[in-house]
Design brief:
heterodimer, A: 448 residues, alpha/beta, four-stranded antiparallel beta sheet, globular, B: alpha/beta, seven-stranded mixed beta sheet, 12 strands, 10% strand
């Protein structure tokens, strides 16, 4: 029985069984029908030592190829400062659960309060919750929230400029939740205002979800969107990349009612898609429809400043079948991750990250056009990621990049490819990538 | 634990910085964007040095209590030890550096992890197939219910829109069902704390999509009639959903698949030792019986004949399928059993779940192996019964039978003192223990739900038992010391009423 995670000696077990008044551990299952007890050997590997486990994962890791990342589309390779893993691996944070006992959870509660303060600063909203799972599920919760906040409406409109994974997840939630969805097409790389007006005129719209930066990397101009949606008594929802909000016009400034998105761009490692951290923020009018945990400031009996989970009447454990969301565990530790990130970066650091990304992305964009292998897809402003029309077969382009250890040129739509540049990418890096791509050009000429 | 009252914003001073970035040599910057697309004022984030940040969050951490700090008997949360090797494996750059959209041939190791972990979870639970995409237990519940609805709909059985949930269920059960568009039908518990089979029978008709069961239930009691319940529900055409929040006592002893369950979720942050992180990230894999496997969500990992792994995204891959048709099986014309991904219930996560958490859970499974897994459940049950038997002379034990991983007291045996469950919980904090789950389940007014887990020693449990007896004695001798507890924590009881009536939810509003 000796095993590092079981502290029991045989003598301990004997004494405990005696106290309980049974003969054996099997007797503790006397209430279980004997024909459901599994007596065979489990189809699992033999127990490994830590050393063997390390070796196992090192071998598994060799089957992955770490590539130089020039891809965005919802997961961004921003730099993560050295401080963060040291803080978030502190076991007082790591091994705690939801702060149900505030007197011994002030660490968790206070960082959530700081996180809420920072997310509302970035988005220009009044309130936010303690975190959602990821951007796509946060978008689905935003859509359900718009239905709950505007009674008796049946439809929600989605821009086709949203990331495809966001549309798929929202479609799935909507299908089972009984929400009818309408799609607003894009025109020249941006959500069509004309199509929005047409869809709104058809009536019954609870909310409209549009991207702040769309799947083409285009920064959307949302002038008049809020007025049009509000005129029909619907809510404007914006799907945002919080890192970009240090420099681009905020959803609050555009007049949005609800903002959602993924805070992965605030320094969270790519980690094959998770754990990331979704966010959901809103104006104060809708705070009582906001799902999930919310932390508020208060005082203790001695008058000390303290923090506590609040407005719990909204939550699933109180409302049960009347709940409009079922979220319980969220991504709290990842909220700490981005809180430490934002504390380190501050307003100037976050601006600098965007300036570096912008500078690199525009350098690559212009040089790629100069190769003659690409054409502009749209003539619209972008920040760190952009879309070009590839004049060489996309598969050929992708294979060549990958052969040289670069991940990029992901196809957004047939013939249209995405590139993303962050502050981690230097001019030398991009010149090397350009060199690889230019080699395709000389080959094509040779073939001709 | 000491008291430190600053927010990071309180430390901010214009001109300080905690970052270091490369010198900007580019010719353009975000200021070149059209003025109408730029934000007008910089966000009021803190401006602090690196040491300010390190010291602030270190001080905050010292006002927190985790499993590494001490005994954490929070019922239904399975606060077992979180092994350190898990963290090191999850941080390996060969995993942490992978972009989720990388081509399958460059992430074969990551995809193999999905396959191997799914296989291990199937072996442990007796379910045919798993999805690892759900992010948490409640998310798993929702996913599992979508699978159930998809199953009925794919058979043209459209009127099955009601789901049976016991009154002892976790709050997420009815909430998940409501989000999934199901109507909730409650079934009562009997005097023994189990689902009342006689109360269940009249509820079963052709509108029932299924029943959600937690076994052992939230009273820590094994639903011994489970096979009869399974037969009854299946007979009416419904499916059985297993809430795996309470799987720990069955680890290595009983498999939900063998009890007749069709769909289940697991909480990897409970049963499989991944850290709770102050409320996530967790993971809530969903397992199903073979006849439901085609409805698991996408993206899902598939294996070619030559052993190469690839990802099915829901687009129909079958021959003769119309171009671009069949995402989630709506138009491609395949049978409901088609396994190419086109019959999936949908997509429930942006990419493929909390991959980092999955790495941790598989690390734990490899450490346990086929040998140690058999002891997880029995040792967890041993600890719970040991505490129960040791304290039943001081605390009211409404259901005296053998329990599984947890059990519920209904307050003090001597209820004349006016001391409540809340007072007991707060007093425990003074003595260096985390409180149990309180006021849940809702079946009793003064519920105290205790779950010790298999990673706690007899000495730790004895220490807890001694303090609980001491608190029971204090309740009679000095009730005031309990009603005003805690006394030694960084802050004392909070004004929660004002917090809710006049919410202050950000620094700017303080």
């Amino acid at each position: 029985m000796a095993f590092a995670y079981f502290p029991h000696t045989e003598d301990d077990v004997r004494q405990m069984l005696d106290r309980i008044g049974v003969e054996s551990l099997e007797d503790l299952y006397s209430d279980v029908p004997q024909d459901v007890i599994y007596r065979e050997e489990y189809d699992l590997p033999d127990a490994m030592s830590e050393l063997e486990v390390r070796q196992y994962f090192e071998e598994l890791a060799e089957q992955n190829t770490n590539l130089f990342c020039l891809c965005g589309l919802g997961a961004y390779d921003h730099y993560s400062p050295a401080v963060i893993p040291h803080i978030i691996s502190r076991s007082e944070y790591l091994t705690a659960y939801t702060p149900y006992q505030p007197e011994v959870s002030q660490g968790t509660l206070r960082y959530i309060f700081e996180y809420q303060s920072m997310i509302t600063e970035l988005t220009g909203m009044d309130c936010t919750n303690a975190s959602m799972y990821d951007g796509a599920t946060a978008a689905a919760e935003a859509v359900m929230m718009s239905m709950a906040a505007t009674k008796k409406k049946t439809r929600v409109l989605l821009s086709e400029g949203l990331l495809p994974q966001v549309i798929k997840v929202v479609r799935t939630y909507a299908k089972y939740n009984g929400i009818e969805l309408g799609l607003i097409p894009c025109h020249e790389g941006a959500t069509s205002y004309g199509a929005l007006l047409t869809e709104l005129a058809a009536g019954d719209v609870a909310g409209v979800l549009v991207p702040g930066i769309n799947k083409y990397g285009v920064i959307e101009d949302l002038t008049c969107f809020a007025d049009a949606v509000h005129a029909q008594k619907g809510l404007l929802m914006v799907y945002s990349d919080p890192s970009s909000l240090a420099v681009i016009r905020t959803p609050g400034e555009w007049g949005a009612d609800i903002v959602c998105g993924d805070s992965q761009s605030l320094g969270v490692p790519l980690c094959y898609g998770g754990p990331y951290v979704g966010f959901l923020a809103c104006t104060k009018d809708h705070v009582r429809k906001l799902p999930g945990r919310i932390v508020g400031a208060t005082r203790d009996v001695d008058g000390k400043r303290a923090y506590v989970l609040t407005l719990q009447a909204r939550e699933q454990h109180i409302r049960r079948e009347k709940a409009t969301s079922n979220i319980c565990s969220n991504q709290s530790l990842m909220a700490l991750y981005v809180t430490v990130y934002m504390s380190l970066m501050g307003p100037r650091g976050l601006r600098e990250v965007n300036d570096l990304s912008y500078g690199g992305a525009h350098y690559l964009h212009d040089r790629l056009l100069e190769t003659g292998l690409f054409e502009k897809a749209f003539d619209k402003p972008f920040l760190k990621e952009f879309t070009l029309k590839s004049l060489v077969p996309v598969e050929l382009l992708q294979d060549r990049l990958q052969m040289c250890g670069v991940f990029g040129a992901v196809e957004v739509e047939p013939g249209l490819v995405n590139f993303c540049v962050t502050e981690k990418v230097s001019k030398d890096n991009l010149d090397a990538v350009l060199c690889i791509i230019k080699s395709l050009s000389s080959e094509e000429e040779a073939q001709a | 634990m000491k008291y430190y009252d600053k927010l990071i914003f309180d430390l901010s001073k214009e001109g300080r910085q905690g970052y270091s970035l490369p010198v900007n040599k580019w010719e353009t910057s975000a200021s070149d964007l059209p003025a109408g697309l730029q934000r007008t004022a910089a966000p009021a984030l803190p401006q602090v040095s690196e040491l300010d940040v390190v010291r602030h969050y270190t001080n905050l951490s010292q006002m927190n209590f985790g499993v590494d700090s001490g005994f954490y008997p929070l019922g239904s949360c399975t606060m077992k030890y979180n092994p350190k090797i898990n963290e090191e494996i999850a941080a390996m750059p060969a995993f942490a550096g992978l972009h989720p959209l990388q081509p399958a041939q460059t992430v074969q190791g990551a995809l193999r992890l999905y396959k191997d972990l799914s296989h291990a979870l199937s072996a442990i639970t007796g379910m045919a197939e798993f999805t690892l995409d759900p992010f948490a237990g409640a998310h798993g519940e929702l996913t599992g219910l979508m699978v159930i609805r998809k199953y009925h709909m794919s058979r043209g059985d459209m009127k099955r829109t009601r789901i049976i949930v016991p009154d002892s269920a976790h709050g997420t059960n009815p909430a998940s069902a409501a989000v999934c568009g199901l109507e909730i039908v409650q079934v009562k518990s009997n005097a023994a704390g189990l689902v009342d089979v006689e109360d269940l029978k009249p509820l079963l008709d052709d509108t029932i999509a299924g029943i959600m069961m937690t076994n052992p239930n939230t009273l820590g009691l094994f639903e011994k009639d489970i096979k009869e319940i399974a037969a009854l529900v299946h007979e009416c055409g419904g499916l059985l959903y297993y809430d795996g929040a309470n799987m720990n006592p069955l680890m290595g002893v009983v498999r939900p698949g063998d009890m007749g369950f069709d769909v289940m979720h697991l909480n990897l942050h409970k049963t499989f030792s991944t850290p709770h992180g102050g409320g996530g990230p967790g993971a809530g894999p969903v397992g199903v019986a073979a006849h439901l496997a085609s409805h698991l969500p996408v993206p899902k990992v598939m294996e070619d004949e030559d052993g190469t792994l690839y990802i099915a995204d829901g687009t129909c891959r079958c021959e003769n399928s119309p171009e671009g048709a069949g995402v989630f099986g709506e138009v491609c014309g395949c049978s409901p059993e088609c396994m190419c991904g086109c019959q999936a219930c949908g997509q429930i996560s942006g990419f493929m779940g909390n991959f980092g958490v999955l790495l941790r859970a598989y690390t734990y499974i490899l450490m346990l192996g086929k040998q140690n897994i058999k002891m997880v459940g029995p040792l967890a049950v041993l600890g719970a019964n040991y505490i129960k038997e040791s304290l039943k002379d001081c605390f009211k034990l409404p259901i005296p039978t053998v329990c599984k991983h947890e059990f519920v007291f209904d307050g003090l045996l001597d209820q004349s003192t006016g001391v409540t469950t809340l007072d007991i919980a707060k007093r425990l904090l003074d003595y260096g223990f985390h409180a149990p789950t309180i006021y849940f389940p809702l079946l009793f007014h003064q519920s105290i739900m205790i779950e010790p887990t298999e990673t706690e020693s007899k000495e730790t449990l004895d220490g807890f038992i001694e303090i609980m007896k001491h608190i029971a004695a204090e309740a009679s001798a000095d009730p005031e010391s309990l009603k005003t507890a805690p006394h030694t924590t960084p802050v004392r009881r909070l004004d929660e009423t004002t917090a809710a009536r006049q919410p202050v939810l950000r620094y700017k509003d303080m």
